[in-house]
Amino acid sequence: MKNPEEILQILKENFPDFNLELKTDQPTEALVIASALEIDKLSLFLRDTSDLLFDSLMNLSGVDEPKNSLLSVYYHLESTTLKHKITIKVSTDRNKPEIPTVSEVWKAADWHEREAYDLFGIIFLNHPDLRRILMPYDWDAGYPLRKDYENPEFYQGMKVPY
Amino acid sequence: MGFLDKEFTDGNIVIAKAEDLLNWARLSSLWQVSFGLACCAIEMMATSASHYDFDRFGVIPRPSPRQADIIIISGTVTLKMATRIKRLYEQMPDPKYIISMGSCSNCGGPYWEHGYHVLKGVDRVIPVDVYVPGCPPRPEALLEGLLKLQEKIRNESMIKKSA
Questions:
Q1: Which pLDDT does position A162 carry in this prediction?
Q2: What is the tens place of the pLDDT at every residue in A107-161?
Q3: DSSP state of B6
Q4: Does A158 contact B108 at a Cβ distance shorter than 8 Å?
Q5: Which residue, of A53, A69, A132, B74, is most buried by count of CB atoms within 10 Å of its CB?
Q6: Which of B79, B107, B113 lies closest to A155 in CB terms?
Q7: Sign for the pseudo-dihedral over CA of B56, B61, B62, B65
Q8: What is the ipTM of this complex?
Q9: Contact check, Cβ <8 Å, A161/B79
Q10: Least CB–CB distance from A158: residue in B79, B107, B116
């Protein structure tokens, strides 16, 4: 079992070029902030290194941060063998939100990333099947969990607003 | 003296209007499409179960819309589901009745303002006969809704056009 500082230390030693940062002043678990295009390499390392063994992606969720013009993704990881947890946060440009997929590393990410795509419009590069998952397939009114989202007046002839 | 007088002296004969008789038969055997959407569906199942016993009113769940008289929209109608509900409704033979059960299907319920995915009332796609309020309504409320529907059927006329 490792605490977040130790986990970050291991990551920094192995990825000296990556701009990694730890935030511990959270009401929840400590947060590792990484940049978006590194997440696929990072995730494979997190899963397979014998000191870390993060074999479970408990949750993956999108967050809209219009103040910083960012779209973020949080990865909540747990190691079921070593019993430690960490949260990884990556951010991407709100106007061109592209993040590499981790669905090859954790299968759970497949549908979670589709959900983040469906509701936030984050494009997960190299995702095997990036389709809408919750909204109707022909939903063309945008991404509902973005802060600036506005409901369409009609969908298939049905009035949407109250 | 009418020519029927002698016919009715043996007993076991009831004289009624054909319309009343047919309406009574219709309201006493409402077959319901098995269809549930959300939390309300659990209450609907409880209404069908032994304690509340929907069957005593002649309500029998039917797994096909093609032999059903009534559909209870019990739960949150999402926009995605609304198109399916409409199709299901169109597959039912006439005369058909709809009970809208619970706040969600009545008016969008707690999703009325921020629920981008919820239809704000199932009556935007199909015509509703009885609205049962509540979130979710207790089985007693659904029973009351059914009795209201039976009352409506009892007063229907197949000769006179309804307004």
A1: 84
A2: 999 999 999 999 999 999 999 999 999 888 888 888 999 998 888 888 888 888 8
A3: G
A4: no
A5: B74
A6: B79
A7: positive
A8: 0.72
A9: no
A10: B79
Name the interface residues of A facing B (CB cutoff 8 Å): 134-136, 144, 149, 151, 155-156, 158-162
**Are A156 and B79 inside 8 Å of each other by CB?**
yes
Q: Whole-angstrom Cα distance, residue B56 to residue B81?
A: 31
Quote the tokens at residue B76: 């949150």
For residue A66, give every residue at least 6 positions away whose Cβ sits within 8 Å of its Cβ, in sequence order, or none.
A94, A146, A147, A148
Residues 6+ apart with CB under 8 A from B11: none
Can you give chain A as a three-state secondary structure string?
CCCHHHHHHHHHHHCCCCCCEEECCCCCCCEEEEEHHHHHHHHHHHHHCCCCCCCEEEEEEEEEEHHHCEEEEEEEEECCCCCCEEEEEEEEECCCCEEECCCCCCCCHHHHHHHHHHHHCCEEECCCCCCCCCCCCCCCCCCCCCCCCCCCCEECCEECCC
* Residues A83-119 pLDDT 10s: 988 999 999 998 889 999 999 999 999 999 999 999 9
> What pTM, to 2 d.p., does this model score?
0.79
Gap between the Cα atoms of B54 and B61, Å rounded: 9
Contact status, residue A57 vs residue A113, Cβ threshold 8 Å? no
Q: Distance (Å, rounded) from C-alpha A12 to C-alpha A146?
A: 33
CB-CB neighbours of A78 under 10 Å: 17
| The CA-based dihedral angle spanning residues B48, B52, B57, B60, taken in that order and rounded to the nearest 10 degrees | 10
